[in-house]
Amino acid sequence: MIELAPGLIYRPAHFSRPGQEELVATIRDIVRAAPLFTPRMPRTGKEFSVRMTNCGPLGWVSDRDGGYRYQPTHPVTGEPWPAIPRALLDLWREIADFEAPPEACLVNFYASGARMGLHCDSDEREVRAPVLSVSLGAACLFRYGGLKRNDPTKSIRLDSGDVVVIGGGSRLCYHGVDRLYPGTATLVANDARINLTLRRVTPPDQVFGPPRETPTFAGRNTRSPIV
Ligand SMILES: O=C(O)CCC(=O)C(=O)O
Ligand SMILES: [Mn+2]
User: From ligand 1's centre to the CA of 106, what distance in Å?
Assistant: First the structure.
């Protein structure tokens, strides 16, 4: 376990190969029930290069008119999201150091060539809980910086089975995925990468509601769309 910055913890090879295979099998079931969708940027409607789905009581979605938000149902099917797999709930219990379970697991599917622009995860009302990130499939170049967009950044390679805890003083740090490493995916086909992020959205003593009084495209409004 390596502390990359205060509260930003890198746990290489946290999941064994059989553990990764089991996770991928459960993600396949989730995608069957809740198909991948292509989120769009608020206002411009520009498509993300990453496709997504979710599991848990809430899921993160984004579209032109509604902006970044959490909601209890799939934006295309209208169905509730499938449950978070046990292995991920166990991971949260083991390392999140938070009193309540995660409410959302965002599943990011990176086809070869997909990226994710520098952003911070700030659509959650509860920022005392960390975001736990699991990498599966192709390796990627993960970039992280400080609390301000223009702070200097560093990069590390994330491999299949690695876990990153984005918490503490780094909970709102800027981060993103610059690129995948071609030819590194042995777990999934076509050089793809799957990233899972577990999130607590609502403080345990509150009920889920809109993140802010005035609806804005708040939160990840600094995410750059990369097509
Ligand atoms: O794919 C990753 O490693 C990071 C994903 C991420 O930052 C996000 O979904 O907010
Ligand atoms: Mn993020």
Answer: 9
